[in-house]
Design a protein that fits this description.
Length: 196
């Protein structure tokens, strides 16, 4: 029976590498996969899922307003799909998560999503919140804070390394902009918690 999976973490936990390895395993067994990534994040190039360790694969891009159930339905008319993989799933709109759930329920195709759980303010992304509500299976991809504890939060910093606590939820960036921290060190970095 197909399921909707949500694999979540902070920045730099290796989510894309795990996605690419899982897709490779399917393909090595003779099963085709369908890869999707957010068009908003072009750091690896348009239509690319890439890991910091140097592996990459081509993917179709999703944008706000895209009907992912229809996209996947159209794709399977060209041949069977054993699994759908979605990178940067935090950028999904809530209705797109429902469309992916429909792929699982109505087309019986597993969908495995990888993304951030919270933003630099400690708030859920809308796509992640909906995945947390709908996913059949959730797994945390772990990474560590500089202190050795599990990192569950992320700070945004400017070009001088100063912590930024306000701004738009989405700002594309990598190691130059974001640092993963445990909750304690995140609180120290942002001046305790938002409610004071």
């Amino acid at each position: 029976m197909a399921k909707l999976f949500f694999n979540y973490s902070t920045m730099n936990a290796g989510k894309s590498a795990i996605l690419l390895q899982a897709s490779h395993n399917y393909r090595e067994s003779g099963m085709d996969t369908y890869l999707l990534t957010a068009a908003i994040d072009g750091r690896a190039g348009a239509g690319q899922i890439a890991s910091r360790i140097g592996i990459a694969a081509s993917a179709d891009m999703f944008r706000a307003g895209d009907n992912l159930f229809q996209r996947i339905s159209d794709r399977i008319t060209k041949g069977p799909v054993a699994c759908v993989f979605v990178d940067e799933a935090q950028f999904l709109e809530p209705q797109q998560v429902w469309q992916l759930a429909r792929v699982v329920d109505d087309l019986d195709i597993p969908v495995i999503c990888y993304g951030l759980r919270v933003d630099f303010r400690g708030e859920l992304f809308p796509g992640s919140a909906t995945l947390l509500a709908l996913a059949d299976d959730m797994r945390e991809v772990r990474t560590i804070c500089h202190c050795g504890r599990k990192a569950t939060m992320v700070i945004r910093q400017d070009g001088e390394g100063r912590v930024i606590t306000e701004g738009a939820q989405v700002q594309i960036g990598g190691n130059e902009s974001y640092v993963s921290l445990c909750r304690r060190h995140w609180r120290e970095a942002v001046g305790d918690c938002p409610d004071g």
